[in-house]
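Continuing the series of single-chain predictions for the mutant panel. This is the parent chain; the variants come on the following pages.
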Amino acid sequence: MTDLTAFALVCSLTPSPEPSSSELMAQHILDQFAERGISTSSARMVDHNVAPGVQTDMGGGDEWPALRDRILEADIFVLSTPIWVGHPSSLAQRLMERLDADIAETDEEGRPIMAGKVAVVAVVGNEDGAHKTIADMMQGLNDVGFSLPAQGSTYWVGEAMHAVDFKDLDQVPDAVATTTAGVVRNAAHLATLLRRENFPVE
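Parent structure:
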C-alpha cells in the first residue's frame, strides 16, 4: 500500500530556520518512510502559536487546530522531542495536553478519533532521560488512541554534560540507524494493517 501518509511534529525549542537535532532525527525517519512510498510532511511546533489549554481550539489565533488537522489526515504520526533537564521539551508536554481534548472525540462509527493511526516517538539530547521521555510520550499517545508499533521509538543521547548534539555528528551511529529502520518498518507495517481493517467498535 503506497498511499499512506506520515506527519512529524517536531517539539524543538529552536525556531526555524536554525538547525535542530530533533528535526534532523524526524527527517531521518520521514526519509525512510518516503523510500517506502509513504508521503511525508513535518512542522516545528515552535513556529506556530499553540496556546496552552486542553480544548481542540482555544481561540484567539490558536494555531493548534491546523496542526491537529495534519495529525488527523496522516496514517502515521511522528513525535520528535529533545530532552531538557531530564524531561521532554515544554512543547512536547503542551502537545500532549492539547491532544488530551481528543480522548473523548470519536469517529463516525464511535471509535476514538485517533484509533487506526500509528504513532512513533523520536528523542535526542546530550543528557540522560531518553527512556523516561519515550515512556511518558508513548503513554500519552496510547491514552489518546494511537497504536504503537513494536519497538516504536528511536533515540540518540550524547555524553552527559557535553555539548555535542545529534546534528553535530558526521554520521548516524549504526545502533541508532538500525533502530530507526526498525521503527519505520514496523510502523509502516502496522499502518498498512490498520488501513485495511480498523479496530472493531464492539
